Task: structure prediction
Amino acid sequence: MARQNDPFSQNIDWLTLLLYLCLVTLGWLNVYAAVYTPESHTSPFDMSTNAGKQLMWIGTTVILIICILVVNHTFFDTFAFVFYGFMILMLILVLVAGSNINGSRSWFKFGSFQIQPAEFTKVATALALAKYLDVPGINLSKQKDLLYVAGIIILPCLLIIASNETGSTLVFASFAIMLYREGLPSWMPAVGLSAVALFILALIFPKLYIFIGIGVLAVLVILLMPRYNRTVANLLAIGVVGIGMIIFVTGVDFFVNNVLQKHQRNRIKVLVDPTIDPLGVGWNVTQAKIAIGSGRLQGKGFLEGTQTKFDFVPEQSTDFIFCTIGEEHGFIGALVVISLFVALLTRLVILAEKQRTKFARVYGYCVAGIIFFHVMVNIGMTIGLMPVIGIPLPFFSYGGSSLWSFSILLFIFLKLDSRRVAFTRR
Amino acid sequence: MLENRRWVIIGIFCLVGLVYLARLFYLQVLDDTYSLGASKNSIKRVVEIPYRGQIYDRNNQLIVYNTPVYDLYVTPKQVRIPDTATFCRMMDISRPEFDSIMGLAVNYSRVKPSLFLRQLSKEDFARIQDALVDYRGFEPVISSMRTYPAHTLSNALGYVSEISKKQLDNQDIVYYRQGDYIGHNGLEEQYEEQLRGKRGVKFMMQNVHGVNKGSWKNGEFDTLAVAGQNLITGIDVEVQKYADSLMQNKVGAVLAVEPSTGEILVSVSAPTYDPNMLSSRFFSKNYRALLKNPYKPLINRPATASYRPGSTFKLIQALIAQQQGTLFPNTVYGHGGSPMRCHCRGGNNLRGAVQNSCNPYFYNVFRKFIYHNGEHNVFKSSAIGLREWHDMVEKFGIGDRLGVDLPFERKGNLPTPEYYDKAYRGALRWKFSNVYSLSIGEGELLITPMKLVNLAATIANRGWYITPHYIKGFGKVGVGVPTEYSVKHQTDIDYKYYLPVIDGMRGAVAHGTVTPLANIAGIDLCGKTGTAQNAKFGHKYDHSIFIGFAPMNDPKIAVAVFVENAGWGGKAAASVAALVAERYLKRKTEATVLDAQVKASNYMPPAQFLFDARKPTTPKKDKDTTQKPSAPKPMMTATKPKVVTVTGASGN
Result:
């Protein structure tokens, strides 16, 4: 769409653009299918339906993309911190002046037009991180630098939590992928993954069993250790780790039962036991699974879905859009969509590695991480592998804020990348 | 070195993709749990609402049961009505009504069923059943309606009606949906969870036209509905109904409990209404009318009306002063030195003072109690004394909620030293002479009838009480009764101190302040009258109060009666209490003269009189509203006030 008008078109990475166009088009068709009712025969261009509105959003996105491609590539580098500061300001402002939609005060409302600053904060944070890490001498294995990076990530998180949008906050965890690439000490992701594993175990099994398990594990480690390694210091270290795990498990228990709000707690518990709360979240997940499962191998065909028609699945055109794909296009449709996403993500990583500046590379990894996190959580929750967290499927879900922010995110990177290509050709 | 980490990252992306595809392959291809037979079928969830538990009295008499009725649901999208006028005539609704109901339904959802008409009786439904076949989109759902064969106890029971918007939004775990029934007020709300049972969910397969194609997966995922539990109460319906009849043309409350168990035998709030009024398709009309009724029949007076206890409170004063060591059975006080007037001759000992309800006597008792500490500063001494008084009175369950099994119970008021500090804007600015009216149960004291009947039961037990409660069991006696209803609360007053007080109470009925007719032979009633000041607050008559128990030895029933605006406590309230006690103990009424006298007496304040404190209105207009035929009248009361009280009030 954009390429005819774009003076830099020859330098754009065609493969990424193609993948992007495929995803956006499929997304729009599915939004149409999700809101389609056989009796009313609405056209996909009808502006009163979500599909029509989504088309309008796509149109405005094209304009945005052109703007991004036209501006000078140094623009993003230069103003990275300014964007970041501006978004932080917006997040504070929305707390004061925002409208309350579905219990979270995170939207600006201009007439019938709503916009959620949290969506755009991801882009600004990615730019700020890239800018900061671009400074020569910054090293993630240094504690001080790591602290600054953590600060850049955590500040917007706190503000978004304050506006009661927990789902969007979790997205900031996706920067871990970029940090890992940029030299985060490798024990950190290991600890993080173990924590997640323990968290899930703590939900499934009674505490006592886990405590016994931790004890047995510690004893095993000590027994299997070579005799000469059994120093007091090592034994002490194992003890400390073991006790740390026990405290963590107890903490999880306390957190789930006392800190989380009821609906959040249910969303996590449903993951472990879908029969809990069959009328609430459990119902959503069951319905999503039924919709997807009923698609079988080939699907029921475009616009032929029934589960997704009769309001069985909630949030049909936004968070649960993947159900429509699963139902109407079956396993083959799901395979195509997931393959497209994996291809896009892989392509982004390959492009990021090719970058000549650290700024562009870090930013590229941020983009890949953010998109990956959204895809993983969104599809994961519809097939019952992830808790129900209300975050959109990139390029697919209905909604202007999310389409805009993902497109901006992606095309800033493509812009930076086009500069690299121009440079090598010269 | 670090750039090799890209392979790890790409590996993670591919791994997650593969795991998800494997999961999808399992869900969509291997596992046929989610296969829906024909590809165009969908699954519909049908919710089965079980019967609500019935409510019984202590003698196994039914108080509440369910009558099957039909709710008619509409799915706007499927509606095909050839001729709306005929349809409206058949449904017995007007065209605008039809339009507004349909509008609401469309607003809610075009594809999900909404309530169209509720609680069609079996007869109504039979009439339209055949015709309904011609109208698509309407679906009858069998439901039930609360029915009250005894026509009584409405205030304590509460009612069952549609869930309110607020309750719907405030659910912790989402259980109720819009249009569901839920217990409101009274026992229906208190024991909602046990009474409602557990609803079941059935998954049905439907084709796109909404036609059922059988159950899904042979009902593997269905959950069965569990019927609600039957509630057995301690109420004695026969005596309850009798008490109702005695409270005709009166405003107030009658409560009776079994002292040894704390079970509530009688719970009358007057004026009352027929509970069946709030259990039909005319709920909102009837409810609005009851709400507007100036006598406020919806208020459950036993637990939520606060009165000053008046002279009945002297019993507590006598008990705690003895325990403190400042009063002895043979202590004698005259009328001198007291600012209070009295109707007796004076010079009583404790027993005589209770029997004759001597005001100056208890003024002196209270004075001695308050100043019984080493402090010489009267202000400080009053504060210390009142604190001690408060702590001892509190043991009788006064000053806080008792914990009776009703959702709304008033705390009442038992003043603390801090309370007066606040009232007099600073500590040490008040002393005994500012608070002495507490000695005879006036002043800032506020007590619910429930607490007074509890006091009667405490004295009957000579020192302890079990919190009054309605429940006797779920399904079987003793099952599911909260454990707090078997705890004996001690008052920490020695047994021996109760004896002279009880002697005095027997004396009060036999030859004291109680009207002679109420001393019914063979029931050995002990009691204390009270006359709560009301007249000096702009009303014509005081409130009449009586608490007591019978028989004197091994008491079987404790009673508290409030009759508003009935004047002297020894007459109206004591008569009702004596008759209720007699009926419970003898299962019949032998005191027919008293019975006739009570039933004939009318203490209804005129409606305009109820209002005049706030909103002056002309008597004529108000009389009209109470007599309007459309406004449902409280069943047990004549709404037309007698002329006597009207003339009395008009002078105001």
Q: What stands out?
A: Residues 1-6 of chain A have pLDDT under 50 and may be disordered.
